[in-house]
Design brief:
By secondary structure, this protein is an alpha+beta fold. Helix content is about 20%, strand content about 25%. The longest helix is centred in the last third of the chain and has 11 residues, at about 150-160. The protein has a five-stranded antiparallel sheet with strand order 6-3-4-5-7. The protein folds into two domains: about 1-150, Medium-chain alcohol dehydrogenases, catalytic domain (Quinone Oxidoreductase, Chain A, domain 1, Alpha-Beta Complex), CATH 3.90.180.10; about 155-199, no CATH class. It is globular.
Length: about 200
């Protein structure tokens, strides 16, 4: 298969790499149908994330079709269309049990495109498939679903929940890019008196 491979700061290539294989019984192999380029990927390419090493396939969010699953996977099966979350979660540790998946202690967190090969490829191995993929509803395009993989949750969690938006608040969002727009959408759910975008 082909993939976007990181080779150090300012160096990447679209190149032939081995197909991913199941490594754990909780893995799924997903054919990538749509993928994004996140601002985090750009930081990696600039060399700002030294924990990403030469040879790593980039990307941490995608929509795709399940090709195969390990024997322990229960929630998805071959042929299912899924959203691949930017955060991988073991589903068992204390943080996962509290729905704080980004703090996963069981081998999850932000690993795709960081410490394990990511989604900017024709196929990807998704660890902890039961808690790291979501069945895609019929009638929703790949492009619409991609917003749910990282952009919308980031804008909502960082901008709205951490900002403790409450009814009647005046909300200012600095930056009206995709995450800022997601924060604006999320803030509106809490009935602020005004939302101001600063760009």
């Amino acid at each position: 298969m082909r993939a976007v491979v990181y080779h150090g700061p300012h160096q990447k290539a679209w190149e032939e790499v081995p197909d991913p294989a199941l490594q754990e019984d909780t893995d799924a192999i997903v054919r990538v149908d749509a993928v994004t380029i996140c601002g985090t990927d750009l930081h990696i390419l600039k060399g700002d994330v030294p924990t990403v090493t030469d040879g790593r396939i980039l990307g941490h969010e995608a929509v795709g079709t399940v090709m195969s699953v390990g024997s322990g996977v229960r929630n998805v099966r071959a042929g299912d269309r899924v959203l691949i979350s930017c955060i991988t979660a073991c589903g068992r540790c204390r943080f996962c049990r509290q729905a704080s998946y980004g703090q996963c202690l069981g081998g999850g967190g932000w690993i795709l495109g960081h410490t394990t090969d990511g989604t900017q490829a024709e196929m990807v191995r998704v660890p902890f498939a039961d808690t790291s993929t979501y069945l895609a509803p019929d009638g929703v395009s790949d492009e619409e679903l991609l917003m749910l993989a990282d952009i919308l949750p980031t804008g909502y969690e960082v901008g709205v929940l951490n900002g403790t938006v409450r009814p009647g608040d005046v909300v200012a969002v600095v930056g009206a890019g995709p995450i800022g727009l997601a924060a604006i959408l999320g803030a509106r759910l809490f009935s602020p008196s005004h939302v101001v975008a600063i760009d």
